[in-house]
Amino acid sequence: MKIFIATGNLHKLTELKGILPAQTKSGEVITYESILDRSGFIMPEETADTLAENARLKAVAGAKQTGLITLSDDTGLFVDALGGAPNVHTARYAGENATSQDNNEKLLRALQGVPPEKRTARFRTIACVSFPDGQTHCFEGVVEGEIAQSYAGVNGFGYDPIFIVIETGKAFAQMSEQDKNKISHRGRAFRKLADFLVNLND
Fold this sequence. Notes:
Largest sheet: 8 strands, mixed
Number of domains: 1
Helix content: 25-40%
Number of helices: 5
């Protein structure tokens, strides 16, 4: 069984390959490819107002273009002191071509002077799987945290250096990839999706 992952983000692919199954319960081997393996793939614009709709858009587009079962996700950071922003604009918070550092710096500036107890936030990931016949299933993962006042750690990507996980007291960037996957929003969403894949055709 070949499955397409609708992303070209190497960091995300590395995380997902540590979570997704290598075979189904019936013993069918699962292999994965991504946008990096297919030239000419056209990623749809994330024009929806919700994570679920954006994730579904990408999964359905992938299944239509490749003819393969397709996985996709959309992730949002929701900061309470900012009324839930950046929400669906998380990856482009500081602009369309913003780097992770640009996004982090903008967020830290927006929260300047906000005390620790009011810097609460959460990451939500919606992971979707779409089949060539149009059937689509989505799964959610959430992790509660707070936005740090300065950078911590050197691992991970995105907002990992400034997102402190409540249950560990550490920034994602201070964790190993394995430890992060155990509790992260993306890890939680894709483990649910992985369980679904394992039971395909069972």
